[in-house]
Write a structure and sequence with these properties.
The chain has 13 helices and 6 strands. The protein is an alpha+beta fold. It has a 3-stranded antiparallel β-sheet. The protein has a 3-stranded antiparallel β-sheet with strand order 4-6-5. Helix 7 crosses helix 8. The N terminus is likely disordered.
């Protein structure tokens, strides 16, 4: 990813990692997509499966529908029957989803967690800059100020995202006894194992950006 792509005001629809990241900010996005890969589901089926409130599920489904991942069909019945299924965009995301599930399983094994692998990965991707940071560090060790310049974000936002990734064991932080202190970040072994997911996201993200451009022309 070229650095000048990050300093633009709106990276959605420009950077595949930032674009994909912003599609995954909802807590239930990946679990919903994972559930729909097995076929059509009614609203109440999804509500029972995830045991979440009506407003939360509605909001997540609307987001996925708006971005072209899923379609919603209402049947003229009393009471009305509402069903959700994956679009071609949603189906094309399945290779990414499968790799995320594999990563989540490895992460669970390492941390002795009993969570569903897809939930684990979702919870690791709730920060707005998580994927861009992991992708940048995939190219090697970076200083804090290097990352700050690359992404064009505030000190506090970057520090918060890096602290989260460090706490979750995905990155290392090394402070050198210099004046001013030099702080460097690198991927841990589990962080490096996320690379296949990043590679898949880059391919899917670029295709999704082309889809967005075509949709915008139609709109």
């Amino acid at each position: 990813m070229k650095k000048n792509e990050f300093v633009q005001k709106n990276l959605f629809g420009v950077c595949p990692f930032y674009t994909t990241q912003n599609l995954l900010l909802g807590k239930w996005i990946l679990p919903i997509l994972n559930e729909l890969k097995d076929g059509v589901k009614r609203f109440n089926e999804l509500k029972r499966i995830f045991d979440i409130s009506h407003p939360v599920l509605t909001q997540q489904l609307k987001l996925l529908e708006h971005e072209g991942f899923i379609r919603r069909e209402i049947f003229p019945e009393v009471p009305p029957r509402v069903e959700y299924s994956l679009t071609e965009i949603g189906k094309n995301f399945q290779p990414v989803l499968n790799l995320m599930a594999n990563f989540g399983k490895s992460y669970n094994d390492l941390k002795n967690l009993g969570e569903s692998p897809i939930y684990t990965t979702q919870n690791l991707l709730l920060g707005k800059w998580i994927l861009p940071i992991l992708n940048e560090l995939n190219g090697g060790t970076k200083r804090f100020n290097e990352l700050k310049r690359t992404f064009g974000i505030s000190h506090s936002v970057l520090a918060k995202q890096l602290k989260f990734l460090e706490n979750e064991g995905l990155i290392n932080r090394k402070v050198y006894p210099e004046i001013p202190p030099r702080v460097e970040y690198s991927l841990t072994e589990i962080g490096k194992s996320f690379q296949p997911v990043l590679d898949s996201i880059e391919i899917w993200g670029k295709n999704f950006i082309e889809y967005l451009k075509g949709r915008d022309k139609i709109d």
